[in-house]
Amino acid sequence: MASQKSDESFTNSSSEINEVADPANNNDHCRNDSECSQVDDVIADSKNYYNNAKTYWSNVSPTVDGMLGGFGSISFIDIRGSEQFLKQLYKQKPAPGRKRALDCGAGIGRISKNLLLPWFDQVDLVEQDGQFCQTARTELADFSSKLGTVFNAGLQDFSPEEGRYDIIWAQWVLGHLTDEDTDSLGEEW
């Protein structure tokens, strides 16, 4: 069996080969050009995926019905279910703080307005569609002292400041991310 020669080498015990990893080459995991091409295709597909999503959402009405795909009538029960979840969460010891929350994929601020702003001292929003961000600012004007920053960014490109939020809320949005980006959020946040 081959042994490890340095911090930069690794052992492939099945074929008894020592190889030195080149940190400058991000495609070390590729065994051949075809496999590397597949990685490049996934990256290109991801960009196309988000561009298509951006186009889709830019054509959606900035209303509760638009945010819920034509099912605006479920908004009340949806909020009540989320409220029950928060009540259970805050029965836990130790419970999270209630100073600052982040509403991910905030749309027009439906969740912030009806759930998070009543619970938290300050709520920031992150939303990729500029029209939705503007509508959220308008819809949440009555909460101006509690409304923090409205970030106009996609979640795949957003990194919250470490330790800033007591709660990071992602409702009806994770399904709009690629699996890779969802995994990254879980690791980074």
CATH superfamily of the domain at 98-188: Vaccinia Virus protein VP39
Question: What fraction of the residues are assigned to beta strands by DSSP?
Answer: 15-25%
- Strand neighbour order, sheet with most strands: 5-4-3-6
Tell me the major beta sheet.
Answer: 4 strands, parallel
CATH architecture type of the domain at 98-188: 3-Layer(aba) Sandwich
Indicate the low-confidence ranges by residue numbers. Answer: 1-30
Determine the CATH topology of the domain at 98-188: Rossmann fold
What is the distance, rounded to the nearest whole angstrom, between the alpha carbons of the first and last residues?
40 Å
Number of strands: 6
> How much helix, percentage-wise, in residues?
25-40%
| Average of per-residue pLDDT values | 83
* SSE ordering: EEHHHEHEHEEH
